Amino acid sequence: MQAGDTERRAGRLTRLPPGRHGLPRDFVARNQRGRLVAGTIAVVAERGFRRATVSQISAAAGVSRRTFYTYFSSKEDCFLATYATIVRHMREAADKAAAGAEDWPAAVAAKLGAALEVLAANPDLARFCLIAPQRAGSEIADRHREAMEATADYLCEGMPPAEERAPSGAVAASLVGGMVALVVRQVEAGKGDSLPELLPDLLEFFLAPFLGHERALGIARGEDASKAAD
Fold first, then answer.
1. Tens of pLDDT along 153-200?
2. How far are the Cα atoms of 1, 30, 79, 140, 190 from residue 13, in angstroms, in the given order?
3. Which of 14, 83, 173, 196 registers the highest number of CB atoms within 10 A of its CB?
């Protein structure tokens, strides 16, 4: 893929005019940092973390290497900051979607649905957050593992008192790993824009160990939860 294509993947963010533009310093900083985040996502999604370079990220963002090092100490620092930004954005979208959910399964469905919508709008986010970390160094892989464990805890928030058969936190984390694998398979097959279609499967997969297969299947199909439990 040519450099111009990578820049387009970075979102065609508006660049500041050259020379003295008279814009506030904080505006310039936000603009440049935002473009570096977008450039990092585009380059890493295309090339993977190990093959991505600071020069490529800077070019995709439309800034110099010197500007890159104004905001980040290294490629790893930039990746982790970008990763945290995406995780925060997805959490905010999920929180908004789940606000007012009538029960725990509905909240899980809303959170998963919101995450899938975000990833489908820009599949590069899935490549960056779900694929690249597994093929990067130990520090990034460790951060990704922590994020997956935090996601399991997040999805379990508001769950009624667990029954004796309810799985442990470690099992819940493995369920998140299984859902991630399904999402990655869809993205690598070139079907990232249809990720929301995975929601019923992901919902059934995650809820079944907690609620039983029949009830989880009923909820995933959109049936009344109480009827699904009968």
1. 999 999 887 654 566 778 888 999 999 999 999 999 999 999 999 999
2. 19, 12, 19, 27, 24
3. 83
